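I hope you will forgive my troubling you with a question about protein structure. The record follows directly beneath this note:
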Amino acid sequence: MQGSRLYSSPLQSPAFHQRYMALNLPLHRQQVLSGCQQQQQIAATYAQQQPSAAAYAAAQPTWLSPTAIRRTQSLASGAAAAAAAAAVAGAGGDDGLVDPKPQLITYLAAFFTVRAHAAALQFLEGLSGWRRRWTMVLLCFVAFMLCNMDRVNMSIAVLPMAQQYGWSTQTVGLVQSSFFWGYLLTQVLGGIWADRFGGKLVLGLGVVWWSIATALTPVAAQMGLPALLAARALMGVGEGVAMPAMNNLLSRWVPVAERSRSLSLVYSGMFIGSIAGLALSPSMISAMGWPSVFYIFGCLGVAWYTVWSSKAASTPTDDPVISSAEKAYILANTSVSGKSTRSIPWRKLLSRKEVWAIILCHFCHNWGTFILLTWMPTYYNQVLGCDIFKSGIFSVLPWMTMAISANVGGWIADTLVQRGTSVTAVRKIMQTLGFLGPAFCLTQLQNVHTLPAAVACMMGAQGFDAFSQSGLYSNHQDIGPRYAGVLLGLSNTAGVLAGVLGSLATGYLLAHGTWADVWRVAVILYLVGTVIWNLFATGERIFD
């Protein structure tokens, strides 16, 4: 008989499913999954009705044994089923970090979705333990999405602006690069401020600053080119603190084993922001004129800040909401105390070849990345004859690929680390893919002349580029988590310099050469970066 079989999981028992699917349990799905005080109260209520079921459920050391499963099935009828479910939920720890019983929460809740959704419920159960730190990650994700929405809208708006104001190609390059003038100024300062005053304050003020500058861009454009360049530079000042502040926050909030995934998710916010900006801007410009994208996108940042100011904290120790179990887990697995960094050992930082490997490779990486970020719509318009709407739509596809690839790469990297691969090997593998993949795709782009082939090359280049989030961009926290903000500020200064020079060089090359020349320079720098990274980079911690 089926009832006599021993199942390795409750989900494998047909009788279990039949009984639970037939019951109308007075428990909301969220109550079953969360394992919080509300469930404990429910468990106590049902325990009075069915003491045998509740006592048995609370006494089990594990819910994976066949004996426990069979006994649970025998008790799982009528109100006893509710008692068992509630007792298990109530017996769980606050985060599921210490007590093993919450593992059964996923199993008992599976009757809502049957066997096919077991994996999804396991993920939800995991979120109950990650709640506060993933709140921080998601807030940073939205900030970075807004960051790139405000940045790429100029790459679309510059097309009608150039027509209206009679700009040459070199003037367009000047406008595109002006953002990076301000962006360059606050890279190291943003890291110092974040390490000293906390990432919450610095990132929050940065978002408000760049949002106001974005909203003022049309006004500045009407005043003349110098005012527009100043407004874009001021916007860059605000966005310049974002990456160092975020790196500071996540180095204190995210355990090492979750580092690649969290960073990949946050950086994918930039890619999704590019998608949103490139996809929405053409329609908004067509319906309301090019100034509308700056007004509307600028207002979104102010709205984000209202949530950030009430929900975020610089460190777990500063958070009044976080559970003691999750706080202990984070502090034990981040190797960074909640204290601010008062002094920066500049000589020590700048004397290590591993730091210079990050700095130089960040320059090599960002040269190609920023060219694609700022010039892709112009390429589609000039080379392939796309109008402003098509240029925006086709520019979205590579960023969609990047958003997906970044999170896939983060999952691969963290999985390799969890299975015993050294962090150094993982960082080198991921960054090598992040360099050689785009180099190959841009090489092919020199030889294609059709829209589908060009879009495919762009998608491939951006897709491989996203693996850098689990290589170069994770490495600052590997080698010096206490100085993660400053280290990222140093390397991103070089990266921003690449953006400034790359945008200016692209304008010059297009005035005196071809797009093939633009791609060749980017490919050479990708290859140089590959060599430097594999010779000198490390994933080991080298700074206390």
